[in-house]
Amino acid sequence: MKAIVTVLSLVFGVLLNTLEAEAQCDPSVYTEACIPQLADGFNFVKSYEVNGEGGAKDKIEYSYVFAKGTQYFLNICAEGSETDGIVVSLYDSNRKKVGTSFANGNFNRGIIYPCNATGIYYITFTFEGSQSHCGGAVLGFKR
């Protein structure tokens, strides 16, 4: 009986710790902080929450219709001044990668993409050595 109580206590303890770790991620804090960091001349379009649920999710994907002749800027915000290993990649409607914030071993805070074909584009967030798996991003445009 004592062994069963001990095992149940351990299981509940692990579950509570997992729920607590997930609850600590508040992507809205990062999306709000990201809006004023858009590059000069870019207008805010949309924000994206990046919650990897403490490492349970390895990829988060969104889609957005981009218009030809428009330049887009995707900016990542995470804890601290860096990206915390969050990588944003952009794919065209054929799922061909057209941009990424991780290049030559460096994490960049975002990407600028000059759109030359109107269509649905896919925005994916992945985690390369991220500690918190939590952040936010914003999309801006200019013509």
CATH architecture: Sandwich
Number of domains: 1
Radius of gyration based on Cα positions: 18 Å
Helix count?
Answer: 2
Describe the structure.
- By secondary structure, the protein is an alpha+beta fold.
- The protein has a single domain (26-142), classed as Jelly Rolls (Sandwich), CATH 2.60.120.
- The protein is built from two helices and ten strands.
- The protein has helices spanning 2-23, 27-34; strands at 43-51, 59-66, 71-78, 86-91, 97-100, 102-103, 106-107, 110-114, 119-127, 134-142.
- A four-stranded antiparallel sheet has the order 1-10-3-8, with helices on one face. A four-stranded antiparallel sheet has the order 2-9-4-5, with no helix packed on it. Strands 6-7 form a two-stranded antiparallel ribbon.
- A hairpin with a 5-residue loop joins β4 (86-91) and β5 (97-100).
- The radius of gyration is 18 Å and the shape is globular.
- The termini are far apart.
- The relative contact order is 0.28.
